[in-house]
Specification:
By secondary structure, the chain is mainly alpha-helical. It contains six helices and two strands. The protein starts with a helix and ends in a 9-residue tail after the last helix.
């Protein structure tokens, strides 16, 4: 019983360490030039490395219990960050709040949707998944391979449409 409690405490402390480290790095409290995603990955690696050091040095706890708590925390942190970082719904709410008045759909479309879609198409082209041509865009061979994998995964999990993104 004691080892279980120690494991939960270790997992919780290391999860808190991860969250504080990510926030400090993203807010540039700790100066860095890393992307947000790389900050999450590096912090997760550091956090799990600390857990491994504790395990190797024979601290008396259940490794897998602490590991599970940490992975849950890291996954939750990354999910919340991603939702807040890229959510069109949140952009909508923030934009209407910033305007302080009634905002037309056309203005929201210009300020939010078109900007977000342009960002996404640029990312897809930069990744080599789409090709920009004179009249528009077309999918690349690499994009077709990725699309086939996504369709396969959607069929595997019986996903028709999520409505989330």
């Amino acid at each position: 019983m004691k080892e279980q409690i120690v494991s939960l405490i270790i997992g919780s402390i290391l999860t808190a360490f991860h969250i504080v480290w990510v926030i400090a790095m993203i807010r540039k409290i700790i100066p860095n030039k890393f992307s947000s995603m790389l900050i999450h990955v590096l912090s997760a690696i550091c956090t799990l490395s600390i857990l491994l050091v504790l395990w190797i040095t024979d601290v008396n706890f259940y490794f897998w219990l602490a590991f599970s708590v940490i992975l849950f925390g890291i996954s939750g942190c990354l999910f919340v960050f991603g939702a807040v970082y890229k959510s069109l719904s949140i952009r909508f709410l923030l934009m209407t709040k910033a305007q302080g008045k009634l905002v037309s759909f056309d203005l929201l479309d210009v300020l939010i949707t078109k900007v977000s879609f342009a960002e996404r198409t640029n990312i897809l082209c930069n990744m080599g998944l789409a090709i920009k041509e004179k009249g528009g865009y077309r999918i690349s061979k690499k994009g077709l391979r990725v699309a086939k994998r996504i369709v396969w995964l959607r069929k595997l999990f019986r996903i028709k449409t999520t409505g989330l993104y």
